[in-house]
Model the fold of this input.
Amino acid sequence: MKPTKKLIIAVDGPAAAGKGTLAKSLAQVLGLPYLDTGLLYRAVARRVIDQGANPHDDATVFAESLETDDLERNDLRQPEVDQAASLVARQPGVRAALLERQRHFGRLGGAVIDGRDIGTVVFPDADMKFFITASPGVRAQRRYRQRYGHDCDDETVLQKEVRAITERDQQDASRDVAPLKPAIDAVMIKTDHLTAADVLHKTLDVLRERGLLGS
Ligand code: CDP
Done:
Protein backbone atom coordinates (compact mmCIF):
# COMPACT_ATOMS: atom_id res chain seq x y z
CA MET A 1 0.00 0.00 0.00
CA LYS A 2 1.61 3.25 -1.10
CA PRO A 3 0.74 6.72 0.15
CA THR A 4 0.03 9.21 -2.64
CA LYS A 5 2.88 11.44 -1.36
CA LYS A 6 5.36 11.68 1.52
CA LEU A 7 2.73 11.86 4.21
CA ILE A 8 3.16 13.24 7.70
CA ILE A 9 0.83 11.32 9.98
CA ALA A 10 0.51 12.49 13.60
CA VAL A 11 -0.52 9.95 16.23
CA ASP A 12 -1.14 11.63 19.58
CA GLY A 13 -2.77 10.53 22.79
CA PRO A 14 -2.32 9.84 26.51
CA ALA A 15 0.02 7.30 28.14
CA ALA A 16 -0.24 3.67 27.06
CA ALA A 17 -3.19 4.25 24.74
CA GLY A 18 -1.62 2.23 21.93
CA LYS A 19 -0.10 5.11 19.95
CA GLY A 20 3.22 3.37 19.51
CA THR A 21 1.68 0.08 18.38
CA LEU A 22 -0.48 1.87 15.84
CA ALA A 23 2.19 4.28 14.61
CA LYS A 24 4.73 1.49 14.15
CA SER A 25 2.40 -0.72 12.15
CA LEU A 26 1.05 2.19 10.07
CA ALA A 27 4.63 3.14 9.21
CA GLN A 28 5.43 -0.41 8.20
CA VAL A 29 2.32 -0.87 6.04
CA LEU A 30 2.80 2.52 4.35
CA GLY A 31 6.57 2.28 3.95
CA LEU A 32 7.16 5.46 5.95
CA PRO A 33 9.79 6.15 8.63
CA TYR A 34 8.56 6.01 12.23
CA LEU A 35 9.47 8.37 15.07
CA ASP A 36 8.58 7.76 18.72
CA THR A 37 8.97 11.26 20.19
CA GLY A 38 8.36 9.97 23.72
CA LEU A 39 11.81 8.40 23.50
CA LEU A 40 13.39 11.85 23.18
CA TYR A 41 11.85 13.00 26.47
CA ARG A 42 12.64 9.66 28.06
CA ALA A 43 16.29 9.93 27.00
CA VAL A 44 16.54 13.42 28.51
CA ALA A 45 14.97 12.11 31.73
CA ARG A 46 17.38 9.16 31.81
CA ARG A 47 20.35 11.50 31.60
CA VAL A 48 18.91 13.66 34.38
CA ILE A 49 18.45 10.61 36.61
CA ASP A 50 21.91 9.24 35.82
CA GLN A 51 23.51 12.56 36.74
CA GLY A 52 21.64 12.58 40.05
CA ALA A 53 19.93 15.80 38.97
CA ASN A 54 16.36 16.77 39.89
CA PRO A 55 13.81 16.39 37.05
CA HIS A 56 12.07 19.55 38.33
CA ASP A 57 15.21 21.56 37.53
CA ASP A 58 16.02 22.96 34.11
CA ALA A 59 17.13 20.08 31.88
CA THR A 60 17.66 22.08 28.68
CA VAL A 61 21.39 21.30 28.50
CA PHE A 62 20.63 17.57 28.55
CA ALA A 63 18.13 17.99 25.70
CA GLU A 64 20.55 20.12 23.68
CA SER A 65 23.31 17.55 23.93
CA LEU A 66 21.22 14.43 23.28
CA GLU A 67 22.99 11.90 21.07
CA THR A 68 21.85 8.88 19.08
CA ASP A 69 23.31 6.53 21.72
CA ASP A 70 21.06 8.09 24.35
CA LEU A 71 18.02 7.05 22.31
CA GLU A 72 19.17 3.48 21.87
CA ARG A 73 19.45 2.60 25.55
CA ASN A 74 17.35 -0.27 26.80
CA ASP A 75 16.44 1.37 30.11
CA LEU A 76 14.19 4.16 28.83
CA ARG A 77 10.88 2.54 29.69
CA GLN A 78 11.26 2.02 33.42
CA PRO A 79 8.54 3.49 35.66
CA GLU A 80 10.93 6.05 37.19
CA VAL A 81 11.66 7.31 33.67
CA ASP A 82 7.90 7.59 32.88
CA GLN A 83 7.46 10.19 35.61
CA ALA A 84 10.74 12.02 35.11
CA ALA A 85 10.06 12.27 31.34
CA SER A 86 6.73 13.94 32.05
CA LEU A 87 8.47 16.43 34.37
CA VAL A 88 11.25 17.41 31.95
CA ALA A 89 8.65 17.58 29.14
CA ARG A 90 6.97 20.52 30.93
CA GLN A 91 10.03 22.67 30.45
CA PRO A 92 9.93 25.12 27.51
CA GLY A 93 13.72 24.91 27.03
CA VAL A 94 13.61 21.12 26.71
CA ARG A 95 10.73 21.23 24.23
CA ALA A 96 12.42 23.94 22.16
CA ALA A 97 15.65 21.93 22.01
CA LEU A 98 13.81 18.86 20.69
CA LEU A 99 11.42 20.57 18.29
CA GLU A 100 13.66 21.06 15.24
CA ARG A 101 14.95 17.51 15.52
CA GLN A 102 11.40 16.16 15.19
CA ARG A 103 10.55 18.46 12.28
CA HIS A 104 13.75 17.60 10.45
CA PHE A 105 13.00 13.87 10.76
CA GLY A 106 9.50 14.28 9.33
CA ARG A 107 10.52 16.55 6.47
CA LEU A 108 13.15 14.14 5.15
CA GLY A 109 10.70 11.70 3.63
CA GLY A 110 7.39 11.91 5.43
CA ALA A 111 6.82 9.93 8.64
CA VAL A 112 4.41 8.49 11.13
CA ILE A 113 5.17 10.30 14.39
CA ASP A 114 3.72 9.51 17.79
CA GLY A 115 3.62 11.77 20.82
CA ARG A 116 1.49 14.32 22.65
CA ASP A 117 1.81 17.50 20.58
CA ILE A 118 2.56 16.31 17.06
CA GLY A 119 -0.74 17.46 15.55
CA THR A 120 -0.88 20.67 17.60
CA VAL A 121 2.71 21.97 17.67
CA VAL A 122 5.31 19.89 15.83
CA PHE A 123 3.33 19.40 12.60
CA PRO A 124 0.16 21.51 12.86
CA ASP A 125 -0.34 21.00 9.11
CA ALA A 126 0.21 17.24 9.12
CA ASP A 127 -1.63 15.41 6.30
CA MET A 128 -3.49 13.31 8.85
CA LYS A 129 -3.93 13.47 12.62
CA PHE A 130 -5.16 10.71 14.86
CA PHE A 131 -5.81 11.02 18.60
CA ILE A 132 -5.81 7.61 20.28
CA THR A 133 -7.42 7.11 23.69
CA ALA A 134 -8.61 4.37 26.02
CA SER A 135 -9.91 4.37 29.58
CA PRO A 136 -7.29 4.39 32.37
CA GLY A 137 -8.07 0.79 33.46
CA VAL A 138 -7.53 -0.57 29.96
CA ARG A 139 -4.35 1.43 29.53
CA ALA A 140 -2.99 0.24 32.89
CA GLN A 141 -3.58 -3.38 31.90
CA ARG A 142 -1.88 -2.81 28.52
CA ARG A 143 1.13 -1.14 30.12
CA TYR A 144 1.46 -4.03 32.59
CA ARG A 145 1.27 -6.59 29.78
CA GLN A 146 3.87 -4.66 27.79
CA ARG A 147 6.24 -4.67 30.77
CA TYR A 148 5.76 -8.20 32.07
CA GLY A 149 4.38 -10.15 29.11
CA HIS A 150 1.15 -11.26 30.82
CA ASP A 151 -2.07 -9.83 32.27
CA CYS A 152 -2.15 -8.39 35.78
CA ASP A 153 -4.59 -10.22 38.06
CA ASP A 154 -3.67 -8.30 41.21
CA GLU A 155 -6.16 -5.44 41.65
CA THR A 156 -3.82 -3.48 43.99
CA VAL A 157 -0.97 -3.55 41.49
CA LEU A 158 -3.35 -2.58 38.69
CA GLN A 159 -4.73 0.36 40.66
CA LYS A 160 -1.19 1.58 41.32
CA GLU A 161 -0.57 1.54 37.56
CA VAL A 162 -3.88 3.40 36.98
CA ARG A 163 -2.78 6.11 39.43
CA ALA A 164 0.64 6.49 37.78
CA ILE A 165 -0.95 6.79 34.34
CA THR A 166 -3.63 9.24 35.48
CA GLU A 167 -1.09 11.39 37.29
CA ARG A 168 1.09 11.56 34.19
CA ASP A 169 -1.91 12.40 31.96
CA GLN A 170 -2.87 15.25 34.29
CA GLN A 171 0.69 16.54 34.30
CA ASP A 172 0.90 16.31 30.49
CA ALA A 173 -2.50 17.91 29.90
CA SER A 174 -2.10 20.79 32.37
CA ARG A 175 1.33 22.08 31.39
CA ASP A 176 1.69 25.54 29.82
CA VAL A 177 3.71 24.49 26.78
CA ALA A 178 2.36 22.01 24.23
CA PRO A 179 -0.15 20.35 26.55
CA LEU A 180 -1.62 16.99 25.69
CA LYS A 181 -4.84 17.70 23.79
CA PRO A 182 -6.39 16.63 20.51
CA ALA A 183 -5.79 18.91 17.53
CA ILE A 184 -9.06 20.44 16.38
CA ASP A 185 -8.88 18.45 13.15
CA ALA A 186 -7.75 15.13 14.67
CA VAL A 187 -9.75 11.95 14.15
CA MET A 188 -10.43 10.52 17.62
CA ILE A 189 -10.28 6.75 18.14
CA LYS A 190 -11.23 5.15 21.44
CA THR A 191 -9.56 1.77 21.58
CA ASP A 192 -11.03 0.08 24.70
CA HIS A 193 -12.82 -2.58 22.68
CA LEU A 194 -10.54 -2.67 19.66
CA THR A 195 -7.59 -4.93 18.92
CA ALA A 196 -4.39 -3.46 17.50
CA ALA A 197 -5.41 -4.83 14.09
CA ASP A 198 -8.86 -3.18 14.37
CA VAL A 199 -7.24 0.19 15.08
CA LEU A 200 -4.84 -0.21 12.17
CA HIS A 201 -7.67 -1.04 9.77
CA LYS A 202 -9.76 1.85 11.00
CA THR A 203 -6.95 4.33 10.39
CA LEU A 204 -6.21 2.87 6.95
CA ASP A 205 -9.90 3.25 6.09
CA VAL A 206 -9.77 6.92 7.06
CA LEU A 207 -6.61 7.50 5.00
CA ARG A 208 -8.25 5.77 2.02
CA GLU A 209 -11.47 7.77 2.37
CA ARG A 210 -9.42 10.97 2.34
CA GLY A 211 -7.64 9.96 -0.84
CA LEU A 212 -4.25 9.70 0.86
CA LEU A 213 -3.56 6.12 -0.23
CA GLY A 214 -2.90 4.81 -3.72
CA SER A 215 -3.93 1.28 -4.67
O1 CDP B 1 4.61 5.29 26.00
P1 CDP B 1 3.88 6.31 26.83
O2 CDP B 1 2.60 6.77 26.20
O3 CDP B 1 3.70 5.90 28.24
O4 CDP B 1 4.83 7.58 26.95
P2 CDP B 1 5.77 8.24 25.88
O5 CDP B 1 5.02 8.50 24.61
O6 CDP B 1 7.03 7.46 25.77
O7 CDP B 1 6.08 9.67 26.53
C1 CDP B 1 6.72 9.81 27.80
C2 CDP B 1 6.47 11.23 28.29
O8 CDP B 1 7.12 12.16 27.40
C3 CDP B 1 5.02 11.69 28.31
O9 CDP B 1 4.36 11.42 29.54
C4 CDP B 1 5.08 13.18 28.03
O10 CDP B 1 5.24 13.92 29.22
C5 CDP B 1 6.35 13.34 27.23
N1 CDP B 1 6.08 13.57 25.79
C6 CDP B 1 5.74 14.85 25.41
O11 CDP B 1 5.61 15.74 26.24
N2 CDP B 1 5.58 15.14 24.09
C7 CDP B 1 5.71 14.19 23.15
N3 CDP B 1 5.55 14.51 21.88
C8 CDP B 1 6.01 12.86 23.54
C9 CDP B 1 6.18 12.58 24.89
Summary: Residues 15-16, 20, 37-38, 41-42, 82, 85-86, 89, 115-117, 168, 172 surround cytidine-5'-diphosphate (CB under 6 Å). The first strand starts at residue 8 and ends at 12. Residues 105 and 210 are 24 Å apart (CA to CA). The beta strands are 8-12, 34-36, 111-115, 128-133, 187-190.
